[in-house]
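Running this now, will post back.
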Amino acid sequence: MGVLLVFYHHYIGTQVNHIERVFTYATAGISAVLFAGMVLIPSEKKVLLGAFVSIFIIVLAAGITFWGIRPYTILYAEVPERIDMLDAHLEETYPERNWEIRQSPAPSDSLYLLLVTFEDEPEITHHYHMSDDVVEGEREIRSTGRSW
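Update: finished.
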């Protein structure tokens, strides 16, 4: 479990909302308590031991799925795909301009909020929220705001 926490801390935890990190560490804590309970319960109490093992497996599987696999997929598969989609849109819309695309650094912002700064107007940052509706083609790609 320690290896999973180190992986989470280095590859996922730094890029997600602080509330998600709290839930991740709480899930890890609950898993650790359940594991300790499994170790400390005498083998004669098979029903109680079986309950602890079952709950431990469920909590561990849910934690790995919700706090490990899901955010890793979003960060390392979905976000790059959305950046490429926005880049292609900008190439088509503004072929004569150059730009830089980056994710919003604010932890409270959506992971799908992409910030675009054009080379010829470096003081203005355009915001693009690349939601599922945009990816699925239900909404067009457009700037959702800008900041100076």
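The radius of gyration is 22 Å. More later if anyone needs it.
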